Every structure is written in structure tokens, then in C-alpha cells.
């Protein structure tokens, strides 16, 4: 059994660095992620400006963040599929399409939450 060299705060620090690298990579290479960041830059401050309850504000912000989280997961899935091979394979298509569908479902959820809170 190998001894773990990174424990405690050092492990957390290194993990945060890898996470930051992942965010930078997604922003640089994924147009959809950039668009979602820009959307968040607009909508999150609006959520703080609106006169809604604390729970409603949390739901509004969380729904936007959830889209970005799912986009990161989708990007990871696509990267792994592309790494495995470039030839067409039905399961690769299923993986990529399902990841994309997950992002889309999050977008529908966010839209529903915002419309429900603001207009209904």
C-alpha cells in the first residue's frame, strides 16, 4: 500500500488548484461554459436586487450554478469520450448526448424556477 503524501490542508490546497485549472480550461475551451458564466454574472446580481424571500433567492442562484456544474460534468464526459477514440461509436454518442441533455434539463429547471418566482 502506498503512503499518501498529500494530507490535510496540503491535499485541500492541491485539490483547489486542480479545480481552478479545470475552471480555467472550461472557460478557455467551452463556449457554452463562457455563455453560462456571462449569464450568471447578469442573473445572480439581479437575484440579489429583487424583492424575493431568502429561499427564493437561494433557489434562483442555485439553479444558475447548477447549470454551470452540469456543463463542467458534460465537458468532462466529452473529454473522456474524445480521449478514448475519435471513431464513431454508438455508446460515445449516447454519452455525449446524455451529458448535453443533462445540461438542457438544468436549463429548463432554472427557467421554471425563475418564471415561477417572478411571474406566477
**H/E order of the elements?**
HHHH
Largest sheet: none
Mean pLDDT: 92
Count of individual beta strands: 0
Percent of residues in beta strands = under 5%
Shape: globular
**Cα distance, first to last residue?**
58 Å
Helical residues, percent: over 70%
Rounded radius of gyration (Å): 18 Å
Structural class by helix and strand composition: mainly alpha
How many helices? The count is 4
Task: Give unreliable regions as ranges.
Answer: none
In short:
This protein is mostly helical and 120 residues long.
List keywords for this structure.
120 residues, mainly alpha, 4 helices, single chain
Notes on the protein architecture:
The structure is a single chain. By secondary structure, this protein is an all-alpha fold. It is 84% helix and 0% strand. It has helices spanning 9-29, 31-49, 54-84, 90-119. The radius of gyration is 18 Å and the shape is globular. The model has no long low-confidence stretch (mean pLDDT 92).
Amino acid at each position: 500500500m502506498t503512503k499518501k503524501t498529500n494530507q490535510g490542508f496540503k491535499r485541500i490546497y492541491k485539490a483547489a488548484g486542480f479545480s481552478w485549472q479545470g475552471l480555467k480550461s472550461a472557460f478557455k475551451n467551452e463556449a457554452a461554459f463562457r455563455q453560462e458564466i456571462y449569464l450568471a454574472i447578469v442573473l445572480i446580481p439581479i437575484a440579489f436586487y429583487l424583492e424575493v424571500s431568502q429561499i427564493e433567492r437561494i433557489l434562483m442562484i442555485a439553479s444558475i450554478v447548477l447549470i454551470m456544474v452540469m456543463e463542467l460534468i458534460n465537458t468532462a464526459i466529452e473529454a473522456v469520450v474524445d480521449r478514448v477514440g475519435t471513431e464513431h461509436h454508438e455508446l460515445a454518442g449516447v454519452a455525449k448526448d446524455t451529458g448535453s441533455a443533462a445540461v438542457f434539463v438544468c436549463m429548463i429547471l432554472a427557467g421554471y424556477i425563475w418564471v415561477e418566482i417572478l411571474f406566477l
